[in-house]
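Handoff note, outgoing to incoming analyst
You'll be picking up this chain. Sequence as last confirmed:
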Amino acid sequence: MTEEDTTEQVSLRCAAHPDVETELRCGRCGKPICPRCMVYTPVGARCRDCARPARLPTYHMSAGYLLRGVLAAGAAGAATGGLWAALLSRRGDAYGFLILFLGIGIGYAVGEAVSWATNRKRGAVLQGIAAAGVVLAYLVRNLVEGYGLLPQDDLYGYVLVGLAIVVAVGRLR
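Most recent structure output, in case you need it:
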C-alpha cells in the first residue's frame, strides 16, 4: 500500500447540489453541504433544515389568545372611550396640548389590556387588534357625545387616535 492510497479521501457531494463536491458537513445532522447551502450559526455551520430557528412562544398564538385579545381590546376601547367623553365633554380643540397626554393614556391602556389578556404575547395580529380597540374608543366617544360616528371637523380627535394607535402598537411590538 502506498502513501497516496492512505491519504485519499472519499469525495462528498452536496445534498442539495449534487454537482458540487464538498468536504463540509452539517454540524448537527452530518449531511454534506456546500458553501452556498451553509448557514452560519453560533454553534457552527449547519444545513438549512437544521439552522431553521424555532418560533418564539411569545409570537405563537392560538385562537383562544386571539379571542382574549379581541375581548380585552373591546372592553378597554369601550371603557376609555366612555372615560374620554366624560373627561372632555367638549371638542378637543378647547384642551389643546393636553389631548396628547390623553392619546398616550388611551393607547397605553388598550395596548396593556391586550398584552395582559394574552399573557404578554406579541405580534402583528395583536397590534391590529389593539389599533381596532383604539378606534372603538374613538367611536364610543363620538356616540356618547352625539357627534356621529366620524365627524369631519374633529382634527384633535383624529390626532389623538393616531397617537394612541402608535402607542398601542408599540406596546405590542
